Amino acid sequence: xQNIDQPTEMTATEGAIVQINCTYxxxxxxxxxxxxxxxxxxxxxxxxxxxxxxxxxxxxxxxLSRSKGYSYxxxxxxxxxxxxxxxxxxxxxxxNKLIFGAGTRLAVHP
Amino acid sequence: xxxVTQTPRHLVMGMTNKKSLKCEQHxxxxxxxxxxxxxxxxxxxxxxxxxxxxxxxxxxxxxxxPECPNSSHLFLHLHTLQPEDSALYLCASSQDSGNxxxxxxxxxxxxxxx
Lengths: 110, 114
Fold this sequence. Notes:
The complex is a heterodimer of chains A (about 110) and B (about 110).
Chain A: E1 3-5, E2 9-13, E3 18-25, E4 29-37, E5 44-49, E6 53-57, E7 60-65, E8 70-75, E9 84-92, E10 97-100, E11 104-109
Parallel strand pairs in A: 2-11
Antiparallel strand pairs in A: 1-3, 3-8, 4-5, 4-9, 6-7, 7-8, 9-10, 9-11
Chain B: E1 4-7, E2 10-13, E3 18-25, E4 31-37, E5 44-50, E6 53-57, E7 64-70, E8 73-79, E9 87-94, E10 104-105, E11 109-113
């Protein structure tokens, strides 16, 4: 079956580090995406991992372990504008089909 | 500006109405997608078009009818909808659907069915 699990909500303090976890079970897995979605706006692409390991992009990093069916998004030096939903999505099948998790709503407090 | 536009941004319709949602992408992509986003639920893929051909229909009820006249435009025709169809409908595009890659999303149409 196809299943993506991530926590529903998280809170963190401005300037801190937060890790958002995602576990997945997809058939024909071909990569793991993270998207950011502010309330009332379109999801925007953050990262894509297809091989095991850590991908770093500025304040955001994403990690993948295919053997464990696990990924995380790491946000450093949190800013108030990072308050948003973070969507984990697994690529499934032989083409660009994404299975999304329900999203993790992150609230950053001063 | 993501390069993907959707109109209208908000739509209220009765169960007997017929309406259409429009999506246009200005990115030169060849694949376009319709997703449904309901409150506290995952984004659900509805349809995929690649080079104007439908390649995926994710068991969507026939009251939703997609149309893709060219690689830049995608429509979703709506008729005899139900209140549970109220949701945010998102359009996305990518280079093509044959290879995994970033999808670019439009801002969505917030649909309310009375």
